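Contributing new records

If you add data, match the layout below exactly. Sequence lines come first and carry their own label; structure lines follow with theirs. Keep one chain per record. Anything else will be rejected by the validation script.
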Amino acid sequence: MPDVAGVVYLAIGIVVASTHGYLVAWNIPGNILEGLAAIVLWPLVAFFAVDLHTLIA
């Protein structure tokens, strides 16, 4: 059974990634990588304004 903290962490990551424009156009491999990275690294995106679009592209 998944840990509640892990589920909450991923749920917040999905919300942050979607509000910052990382969950669009999943038909391009680079966008998939950006989206997954934004979900996992959401504290950097939300709190430190790290732009994964420029880091990964």
